[in-house]
Amino acid sequence: MIDVRHRGRAILIAYLIFCAFYLGAARLGIREPHLLEPSVVDRAVPFLPWTIAVYLSQFAFLFLALWLQTESRSLTRVFAALAIATVVSCAVFVVWPTTIPRPLANNAAFDALWLFDVPRNCFPSLHVALAGIAAFFWPRARWIAVIWAAAIAVSTLTTKQHYAIDVLGGVVVAIVAIAFARREASTN
Fold first, then answer.
1. Which of 35, 99, 154, 158 is the most exposed place for a label (fewest CB within 10 A)?
2. pLDDT per residue over 167-186, tens digit each?
């Protein structure tokens, strides 16, 4: 159980563990990344560089989804779902690394993103999975969280960080992680 009084420390530790898993998965890939082909949807979605702000808002969104929890049990459930999604996604990244071509963007936000992001963790979209989990467990005014999560999901396409199949994979990972976290909470 994660005590809400220590959530700041828990968020920091969880983020460091997340980074180790996410970046480590890219280094541990057991084969060269598979280049995904764009679908009809991917070819129809335009590259909109300004949506990088929405894409990067994921960090604030996840932080708030955790920080706004007022009960230790609910905070622990959100952490559990986020951890499950991260472990499942990173396992896929190791076993079946995927990549897509990155767009040409003369943009400081993209440059900063690519400095810390890896191009071989595309499927499933962990960005979409974590945003979906955050929206599901958002403690109040959930409609705001649903819109924000949807905007983040769309931004993964408009920033050309993911393809539609990655988004679908992220949704599936979120559903599985939420189901497991809720099931564990109901048995305890």
1. 35
2. 999 999 999 999 999 887 66
